[in-house]
Amino acid sequence: MASKGFHVDFIGLGAPKCGTTSVAQYLAEHPSISLYPTKELNFFSSENSIHEPENTAYDDGGMTLYEQRFIDAGIDFSKVVGEFSTCYFHDKKAAERIKRHFPKAKLIIMLRNHPDQLFSFYKMDRYFYNSMDCSFEEALKRYPAYIERAKYSKHLRMYFKLFPKKQIKVLLFDDLRKDPRKLMRDLYTFLGVNPNFAPPSLGKAANVAKQARSPGFRNAVIKLAKTAQRVEQSKAGFVIRGLRKAGVDRLLLKAHHEWNVEPSNAPPMKPATRARLTKLFAKDTAATAKLIKRDLAWKNTTPAASAKKRRTRRRPARRS
Length: 320
Description:
The protein is α/β, with parallel strands linked by helices. It has 2 domains: 233 residues, 3-Layer(aba) Sandwich (Rossmann fold); 54 residues, no CATH class.
């Protein structure tokens, strides 16, 4: 059980690969915000990924462990406190646990057109898992969870049912690319901090598609992280907490990202696949647009539609 003074004021829910890493960075840079330094804490999730279908951190450690993570990370509780974990968006148990412990927390959701979100997620999976040695098209067949997790309207309804809509801010990847300053002013206002602050990293790309130069080293880092999580919940947990407090985990990840990472070599998405996914999610796009009261341009993201738009714009006016 967490102590009386412990508070988390906002939680970023996802969806993954929708610009959440950039937004988390901009939030962390605000002087009035104290954000948990490691994105994807995933504490409330019942699973970590489609490849790791079980996460027992909440059941094993409870809110005492959750609070300890924040304390060890040096969170300043005099500021607006938050965390960002994109596994929460589709996870019913995570939604119910957040509601139970932080019913007044503000929630941040980011969305992106389905084909690009799924393809970006696929490239991330290629980076983290050796089993992802297949094409994007094969991955969609092999892992039905890809499609299920991208049903935005379903997950939005789940959170809208549990929380007042005034506590939920839905942002779009397109708006982040078009005008990140405007988007962040809106988000800072929502969180009750100075909206005029300009984050130093504003506009810089974050968490771009990548692959490991040495899969062996990557696997070792991931295995160490999982082992540390298990040990942290045992009697010897004080050792891991001490290392985490000293920032050893962050130093190891930094070394991995600086030395062992290179741009992804995944082949581009096939136009036919993009068209199929756009059609597959057409109803979800319409339902999502209605829920968030936005006119989503995703309805016309197929190459054919885009080309038609370009031809229409280029057509010269007839002279009388």
